[in-house]
Amino acid sequence: MDFWTGIETLRAQPKARISDLLANYNRTARMKAEFGPFMFDMSKTALTAEALDALLNMASGVPGRRDAMFAGDRINATEDRAVLHTALRGNRPVVVDGQDVMPGVHATLERMRDFAADVRDGTFQGQGGRITDVVNIGIGGSDLGPAMAVLALAPFHDGPRCHFVSNVDGADWEDTAKTLDPATTLVIVASKTFTTIETLTNANTARDWMADTVDDPTAQFAALSTAQDKTGAFGIDPSRVFGFEDWVGGRYSVWGPIGLSLMLAIGPGNFDAFLKGAREMDDHFRTAPLAENLPVLLALQGIWHHQVCGYPTRAVLPYDNRLSRLPAYLQQLEMESNGKSVTMAGDPLPGPAGPVVWGEPGTNGQHAFYQLIHQGKTPVPCEFMVAAMGAEPGLDHHHKLLIANCLAQSEALLKGRSHAEARALIADRFSGDELERQAAHRVFEGNRPSTTLIYPRLTPDVLGGIIALYEHRVFVEGVMLDINSFDQWGVELGKELATSLGPLVDGGDASDKDASTQALLGQLLAWRT
Ligand code: F6P
C-alpha cells in the first residue's frame, strides 16, 4: 500500500479517546521508547497499537534511505549532494567520490580544538590581551545551532563570553557591540557560502568597528565556511579559517566548524561529549528495530498528528529555560527541511508535508498561549521535554515545581474537565441558567495529545542526543513523504527580490513592482526624507 493510501485508510478509522486507550494496562510499555539517557512516552496520544503497526509498515523504505545517507550517497538529489552531517560526529570511514572523508573531518576538528585551546588559555590574544568575548556573526543554520547550544549548556561555560549577531537590522550589531571591547574581542564570521547578505553586512560593520581601535583588525577574525577563496578575499588568514564540505547542510552544521563558538564556550572536552551524544543517537537510529527506534517513533507520531489527524501545527515545549532557543532551532530544522510541496520526482504532493512548528519553554508558555492549547478549537500536539534534575542543586525546589508543571500540563490536556465537573466547582456561587453558562466557559474538552521526552539532566551528551534525535525524525518524515528534506529553494526567491529592491530604497525606479509594493515603498521613502 502506498503512503497516501495508508494515510487515507488511517484517516477514515474512528479515533479512540486517549484516556480509554490508557486504561489498557500495557499501553505505556508499548507506546514508549528508551535509549541511553532518554525515555520517550507517547502513550498520551490517540495512536493505537494497530495504527502504529500500520505506520511502521509504511516506514519500510526508511532503512534503505537511512543506510544510503550514512554511506554518503547523493540523496540530496536536487543539489546532487551527499548528506553527511553524521560524519562530523562519526568515527567510521565514509567514502564520497572514492575518498574517505573522515581524515579531513578529524583534521579540522583537531585544528578547532587547538585554536579553541589557544583562545581559552590566552595563547591567542587580541591587541588588548586575552580574548574575553566572542561574537559569532551568521544567520539561519550558521547562527541558530551554536546560539541554541551555547545557551543550553551555560552551566558548562568556562571560556570567553559568546554573543550572536544574525539580523541585518543594525540594532542587532549595535546592541551587542556596545557591550564589547574590540581589543579583547574575537569575531567569527560563520557562513557556509560566505555570500549571505546579512552576514556579510554585519561582518563588514564589525571589521570597521574593530579597525577604529585595533591596528590589524582581521587578525581578530576567524571564519567558518566552505568558501575559502571568499574568506581570503575578506582578509581572514587561512590559519583561522575552518572549512567544511557541501555535504553539510546549514541547518545540520553545528557539529563541525559552525560549532566553534560552542567549543570556545564549553571547551573541547565538553564539545567531544556533545558529539558523542549525537553519535550514540546515530548508532541507535542505524541499528535499533523500527518499533524501538526513538527517531522513528517520534516521526511516526508526527505523521499521525499532521497527516492522519490533520492537526496543522505542533508545539515543542521544553521545561528547561536554557532550551528556550530550541523551538527556534527546530523551526529551521523541521520547516526548512520538510516545508515542501513536491515529491522527489517533482510531482505535486497529494497531502501536506511538514507542519508549522512553534513553542516556548515551560512554565512561561503556560501563562501565555496554553489557553488556546487547552480550550481552542484546533488541537495542538505538544512535545514536552523535561530533565529529572536541574543544574542548580541549591534550587531543587524550583526544579520539582518545573517537573510537576510539565506533568500537570500533559495530564490536564488528557483529562480535561467535563461540564458536570465544571458545574460542581461553581455550584455554590451560581444557579440556574447562569450556572450552566458559567460552567460552559470552564469546560476543557481534554483528549488533547502530547508526548514527553525525559532525561536525567541537560549535559553536553544529552543535548547532542536531543538534536540528533530531531534531525533523524525530520529525515524519517521526509523519506515517508518522499520529499527532499535537504534543499531549501523556497528561501531563494525572497533573497533575489531583496537584491532587486535594494536600489529602490535608494529612490530607484519602482514602476515594475506591484501596486502594493509601490505604495508601501512610496510612504517609507517619504518618511525617510
Ligand atoms: O535562509 C537560507 C539559508 O541558506 C539557510 O539554509 C542557511 O542556514 C542560511 O541561509 C545561512 O547561509 P550561510 O551559512 O551560507 O550564510
Automatic annotation (TrEMBL):
Keywords: Cytoplasm, Gluconeogenesis, Glycolysis, Isomerase. GO terms for molecular function: carbohydrate derivative binding; glucose-6-phosphate isomerase activity; monosaccharide binding. Its EC number is 5.3.1.9. The active site is at E336, H367, K495. One of its GO terms (biological process) is gluconeogenesis. InterPro entries: G6P_Isomerase (IPR001672), G6P_Isomerase_C (IPR023096), Phosphoglucose_isomerase_CS (IPR018189), SIS_dom_sf (IPR046348), SIS_PGI_1 (IPR035476), SIS_PGI_2 (IPR035482). Coiled coil: none annotated. The keyword Repeat does not apply. It holds the Pfam family PGI. HAMAP family: G6P_isomerase. Belongs to the GPI family. This is Glucose-6-phosphate isomerase. It comes from Jannaschia faecimaris. The gene is pgi.
